[in-house]
Design a protein that fits this description.
The structure holds three protein chains of three kinds. By secondary structure, chain A is an all-alpha fold. Chain A has helices spanning about 5-20, 25-50, 55-85. In chain A, helix 1 (about 5-20) packs antiparallel against helix 2 (about 25-50) and helix 2 (about 25-50) packs antiparallel against helix 3. Chain B has helices at about 10-35, 35-65, 80-100, 120-125, 135-150, 155-170, 180-210, 215-225, 230-245, 255-260, 265-290, 295-320, 325-345, 350-380, 395-400, 400-415, 420-435, 440-465, 480-495, 500-510, and strands at about 380, 385, 475. The longest helix of chain B has about 35 residues, at about 180-210. Chain B is globular, with a radius of gyration of 22 Å. Classes of the chains: A mainly alpha, B mainly alpha, C mainly alpha.
């Protein structure tokens, strides 16, 4: 029964997506993006099981590595802006508009 | 254990890609071991020679072997006609962008120093700027090449990230207006990561549907798999969100003006030209190769997106008061024009025509864009570039040559005859009419007319307004910047007056379409 | 095309309902505030305020953590290779050495730029 895992992955993805849209703190927004990536991983591994081939598992490895690289780049950027403004709220980043 | 065979990898055909990535890694080593004062002196020739060498390798490959007919590296990367053309275009655009990057005074002296702090003053007093820019740019360029040539959704995702991650960082490295720059970097990063999560979930759905992420394999599965349509449609939609974000199509365009305005202008030039070219390569591959037989289902949505993109780009551009934001909206409108070509599919000859028109358009638009941003770097105020449009008033009286060239670039964006933009737009719209997308072309022509209004408004502002007493100064361009402006102007003229050789080249590249 | 009609209808209905209920509530509903109403609904104990200036990790820790994550995760690629290294033979070995060298380049950069120093 792989359906349960797919439902779980969809739920995680939705929680992550909603989190990105409603949370203010850039770090939390970013953690929600990571949650979405991990939901993708769960889906990949489930489908790999369902199809009986290993592609999905290998893809999950690549996604983890890409996610790690993204964490490093993202945290670097967020830390820089935090040091400048003493705030990691995305609402405070409002200089660029119209 | 059933045997696992070592894969075969055609190193020869992948040479341009490997050269760019190899040089990027060498660049990191230079950063690690070369003394500070020598770094730039080593980076500049290394980067330029690498990009020119990779361009040379592409040409050698075409002349010696012609266009390959099979995907390489076990079907992961497709070095076919369109790929080679797009690689050539990306490399040319990168060379001119790197000439802009070479110009001092664009990048921050120390990204870690808080703006306005003693640390920053100290870093500025010490002189120089971050030279990490060069390896980062090389990684981004390599990622663009990989993104456009991937024959497999996994490689496409890796290419997307290798292209995007360095760009997120580069956006935050402007020397002046650092708050804006850092803010653009955060926005680009959060939205980019969000959109790539969508791309990835779409990829998971497609994998669940087809059991493979190979583009050709997905195409085969369309005829074979039944009863899993939900996965397929969901996957197509989510993949589309990720890709349309990268080309900046409405309603996923929100990042573009902010990022273009905040990023250092040479990086904006690289993004506006190279990323757009690479992303269109990927869009074409996904929607033509993998989902080509599903065109009846994605076409209506794509129509909507193309219309919305053209209209949003053209109308919002009118209200802009910052030159870089205006160019960003113009880039959104151009993404809409390009989408009309993506929609115009049909039988093989129709596809080849559309593809060749798109390739020509990408080259023509990219080179003009880099030229326009090069001009933007030269018009300076006390605090850096004079971004606000009111500061550009009367520029034609102070510096007729520069204003004339900029006006010429704007006319090329508008698609006035005798500029490259005219033939690009004409070719894409002609292909779209032949492909049965006449209403789209009507919208395209109308929004071109709207767009022409604000291009002309800037020209009027430059030539028929009195210059402000404390107007911006025109920086004496470095040799690199001057070369970029001259090259872009020359290319815009040549492609506008005598485009046939390039059209022939694009036709040849497009004739065999994508390998599967 | 017909495929999209239900979706469109649903979107219109949903948007209409959302706008209607948000717009009508302040007009028709009574307003009687009290302390219980302003509380978080069924969310366990009352949250305590975060200490000001405390409760944060220092930036140094952040950098170390970032470096750890990236080098730690790279190792993941060794696992699939380790499962089949005998069958992949020399090719696999050479590719894996190249991969590790690439990771080492990044390590060398971090080391030379004093990313590994705590102070």
């Amino acid at each position: 029964m792989t359906t349960h895992y797919l439902v779980l992955s969809a739920l995680l993805f939705a929680i992550g997506a909603v989190g990105v849209l409603v949370r203010r703190n850039a770090i939390v927004v970013f953690m929600c993006v990571e949650l979405m990536l991990n939901a993708c991983n769960l889906a990949f591994v489930t489908f790999a099981r369902q199809h009986g081939n290993l592609d999905g598992q290998i893809i999950a490895f690549f996604v983890m590595v890409v996610a790690a690289a993204e964490v490093v780049v993202g945290l670097a950027i967020i830390v820089t802006i935090f040091r400048t403004r003493r705030s990691a709220s995305v609402d405070d980043a409002n200089l660029l508009k119209y | 254990m059933n045997g696992i065979q070592p894969p075969t990898i055609e190193y020869g055909q992948l040479m341009p890609l490997l050269l760019v990535f190899g040089a990027a890694i060498v660049g990191v080593l230079i950063e690690a071991f070369a003394p500070r004062y020598l770094r730039k002196a080593i980076h500049v020739p290394l980067t330029m020679l690498t990009l020119l060498g990779a361009f040379g390798l592409v040409i050698v490959q075409v002349l010696r072997d012609g266009v390959p007919t099979a995907a390489v590296a076990m079907g992961a990367i497709a070095v076919d006609g369109p790929s080679l053309f797009i690689w050539g275009v990306i490399l040319v655009l990168s060379v001119v962008s790197v000439l802009l990057i070479n110009d001092d005074d664009n990048f921050v002296a120390s990204a870690a120093a808080v703006p306005g702090s003693p640390d920053e003053e100290e870093a500025i007093a010490r002189g120089g700027a971050h030279t990490e820019v060069y390896p980062l740019a090389l990684f981004a360029i390599g990622g663009m090449m990989l993104f456009a040539a991937s024959n497999d959704l996994l490689i496409m995702f890796v290419g997307l990230e290798v292209m995007s991650l360095p760009l997120y960082l580069l956006c935050g490295l402007a020397r002046r207006r650092r708050l804006l720059s850092q803010e653009s970097s955060v926005k680009y990063f959060l939205l980019g990561a969000f959109s790539s999560a969508f791309f990835l979930y779409g990829m998971a759905m497609i994998y669940g549907y087809a059991g493979t992420v190979d583009l050709g394999g997905i195409n085969d599965a369309l005829g074979r798999v039944g009863g899993q349509d939900t996965l397929l449609y969901l996957g197509t939609a989510l993949l589309g969100v990720g890709l349309f974000f990268k080309i900046g199509a409405a309603p996923f365009q929100a990042w573009k003006p902010d990022v273009y305005q905040g990023a250092p202008t040479p990086i904006t030039a690289l993004m506006a030209s190279g990323t757009l070219v690479a992303a269109f390569g990927a869009v074409l591959r996904v929607f033509w190769v993998a989902l080509g037989n599903l065109d009846w289902d994605w076409r209506p949505v794509m129509w909507g997106i193309a219309i919305l993109t053209m209209i949003v780009g053209a109308i919002l551009a009118i209200t802009q008061t910052d030159i870089k934001r205006m160019l960003a909206y113009s880039s959104i409108a151009h993404a809409g024009f390009l989408l009309t070509g993506v929609i115009a599919t049909g039988e093989a000859t129709q596809n080849a025509n559309s593809l060749s028109a798109l390739l020509f358009y990408l080259l023509a638009y990219g080179i003009t864009t880099v030229g326009a941003f090069a001009v933007v770097t030269m018009v300076r105020d006390a605090g850096g570039e004079a971004g606000h449009l009111s500061r550009w008033a009367g520029l034609g009286k102070r510096s007729p040559a520069l204003a004339g060239i900029f006006a010429f670039f704007l006319l090329a964006f508008a698609g006035i005859p005798l500029t490259s933009g005219f033939f690009g737009k004409y070719a894409v719209f002609a292909a779209a009419v032949a492909g049965g997308a006449l209403p789209l072309v009507v919208v395209g022509v109308v929004s071109s007319a709207i767009a022409a209004f604000f291009y002309v408004r800037v020209i009027v502002l430059m030539f028929f307004s009195e210059p402000a007493a404390d107007g911006p100064t025109i920086a004496v361009p470095s040799a690199g910047t001057a070369a970029v402006v001259a090259l872009a102007a020359a290319a815009t003229v040549v492609l506008g007056v005598y485009p046939q050789p390039v059209f022939d080249l694009a036709d040849a590249a497009a004739s065999s379409l994508f390998v599967r | 095309m017909e495929l999209y009609v239900p979706i469109l209808v649903l979107a219109v209905l949903a948007a209409g309902f959302a706008v209607f209920s948000v717009a009508i509530a302040p007009i028709t509903g009574p307003r009687r505030w009290n302390r219980a109403k302003l509380d978080a609904y069924e969310c366990g104990i009352e949250p305590t305020p975060q200490p000001v200036g405390g409760g944060r990790f220092p930036l140094k820790y952040m950098i170390t953590a970032m470096l750890f994550i990236v080098f730690d995760i790279e190792i993941i690629f060794l696992y699939p290779w380790a499962v089949a290294f005998d069958q992949l033979g020399v090719f696999g070995l050479v590719e894996m050495v190249l991969f590790i060298v690439t990771v080492l380049v990044a390590y060398a950069y971090v080391w030379r730029r004093k990313g590994l120093d705590w102070d």
